[in-house]
Amino acid sequence: MNERFQKICQEASLVGASSVVYQNGRIVEELSYGKRNLEANLDSCVHTIYRIASISKVVVAVALMKLHEMGKVCLDDDISNYLGFKVRNPYFPNDPITLRLMMTQTSSITDGDYENGYNSVNGTNIDCRLQDLLLEEGKYFSYKTFDKNKPGTTFIYSNFNCGIIACIIEKLSGMLFTEFVKKEVLKPLGMDASFVITDIYHYDQVASLYVVKDNKITLNRSYNDFVNLKYQLFPLGDNFRGPAGGLFTSPLDLARFANIFLNDGYPILNKKTIDKMLEVNWQGQGHGAYRAKGLQMIILDYKGKRLYGHFGDAYGVRSFMLFNPEKKVGINYLTNGGFYKLQESGIDSVQEQVLDLFIEKYLN
Prior knowledge:
By secondary structure, this protein is of the alpha+beta class. The protein contains twelve helices and 13 strands.
């Protein structure tokens, strides 16, 4: 598998890439290619720490399900009950929005636009509170934050939904979202991981991220950039920026997380909770690879094989964490940039080839 992995990465002129395959609770493949940092000529390896992009959403979901197991939250309750103010799609004022709808991307809450709404403040430290975005009198409110289709009827991929879930976690736990995740998820799994870049122990392993500009590989984010762009802390319940894609960890440590879904939730959730997360909660026409979702989990039928997990794409990173519970096997893959091509499926050309390798060896 390694020889073919190297060839795939080389043909796509990836800067660097790291991948691990895990089965029955142990690592069975370690694959790496290229550089985690071109400027310093540092090699990639399975210990390389990436900003894993939207795979982070599954970690957020697991944190919420910890509160669900504690009896502090019901997935079908109106989110207004937890936020302390009434949230409604102004086009459907009588329809409550629930956590289940948010975790299946059918809540009707969108990312807005770049003039107002979530997208206008995400990536900044502008003093914007959650109410400023969700209430009509809010300073950054936009009607484009809400879809004109009824809540529960239409799939719309949204990062803001995940940020709102993180705010609810803060309200219910009385802790910063980043601290709750560390205490209840990351630390029990022994992961060197955090939504706060300066909390990473092996900070010297953080990969720089690269994008293609004018047909050339160009540095987009370095470790120092991540530190300088770190979000400031707002009051509990207002830290909606970061959770949707901001977790830093290595593919090796990410396997520790993925294994909870292959081991009935051990050691942080129970089997009943895992079953809820993996069962189909939505099915239909999404975008790209999205055809069915569990709770914040993509359910993917890929070339006749059922896979669960998530993809990621941000600032040059392309990533996935995908696993098959029946065979108790999974794969994590991350690259920090290169000349990959987006396929009609929404999966890029390199991801597709790496997945094909994995399926050929472990699922056929």
